[in-house]
UniProtKB/TrEMBL annotation:
GO terms for molecular function: DNA binding. This is Transcriptional regulator. Residues 17-89 form the HTH cro/C1-type domain. SMART domains: HTH_XRE. It comes from the Bacteria.
Length: 279
């Protein structure tokens, strides 16, 4: 059982972090009129609460490090208001002991046959996902290829979330403007079979709040089915890599698919080795 003595330092760190992030923002940066004669720099607590859509008392208590429950929904709103980047959001979730793990990603049963196929494809990168693009399991080649995608461990473990929440995604993913809308259109097609499902509805709500870009793409109501794609990825060590992306499905694993990334050319096949750890 966690003692209060063990929890108190975390609360103190959370309070200091929120105060520091609030102090670096001016009213003008968040669309508020300038306020003269401020005794301290940055936004006031009530301004953060208003912009985040949470109660002033609740936010004050959060910033004071009081023992209150902080849901993923309100932490997302606070993170968005304070303009936290990826690392800062992860830091906030950890300090608030509310790391937003997503339902379903780590609880899906995978048969030995599917797992053998997935790992037997190595050294070709492959990952097992569900219709919501949660990453259920990946082989060693896929893990190595995307090891440096996030500066911190991936929180959401989802292909779409990893694109729309990573600030450097366009830098490493030259086909971003074409492929991410395709993922959203496929999510829309799958959503038609899950309308009203609380897990799906909560996931979509958080995606809308976390990524205005996703919200804009979702509003287009575009629908797509899976099809073979050519994908390019810019690896920090191996350089530009080009893959033929396809999917394998299994009669015994409804709703799951193995996305496979065979190299499209010999150059990619040769340089793919550079993504693996030395030794």
């Amino acid at each position: 059982m966690t003692t209060d003595a063990a929890v108190r330092p975390r609360r103190v760190e959370l309070a200091g972090f929120l105060k520091a992030r609030r102090a670096r923002l001016s009213p003008e940066e968040v669309g508020l009129p300038p306020a003269p004669r401020r005794r301290t720099p940055g936004l006031r607590r009530e301004e953060v609460a208003m912009l985040a859509g949470v109660g002033v008392t609740w936010y004050t208590w959060l910033e004071q490090g009081r023992p209150i429950n902080a849901s993923g929904q309100v932490l997302d709103a606070v993170a968005r208001t304070l303009r936290l980047d990826r690392a800062e959001r992860e830091h906030l979730y950890r300090l608030a002991e509310a790391t937003p793990l997503r339902a379903g990603a780590g609880t899906t049963a995978v048969s030995d046959v599917v797992r053998d196929v997935l790992h037997g494809l190595d050294p070709i990168p492959a990952t097992l996902t569900n219709s919501r693009f949660d990453i259920i399991e990946s082989n060693a080649a896929h893990v190595a290829l995307f090891a440096d995608w996030h500066s911190l461990p991936c929180v959401h473990k989802n292909l779409l979330w990893c694109c729309v929440t990573e600030p450097r995604a366009r830098e490493w993913f030259p086909d971003y403007e074409r492929e991410v809308p395709h993922l959203v259109a496929r999510l829309r097609e799958a959503y038609g079979r899950h309308v009203g499902d609380p897990s799906w509805e909560e996931d979509l709500r958080r995606l809308h709040e976390t990524s205005p870009e996703f919200a804009e793409m979702w509003a287009r109501h575009e629908v797509a089915e899976p099809r073979d794609r050519v994908l390019r990825f810019r690896h920090p060590v191996a350089g530009d890599l080009t893959f033929n992306r396809t999917e394998l499905t299994f009669p015994s694993a409804a709703g799951l698919a193995v996305a496979v990334y065979p190299p499209r050319d010999e150059s990619t096949r040769d340089r793919l080795r550079l993504t693996r750890p030395a030794g």
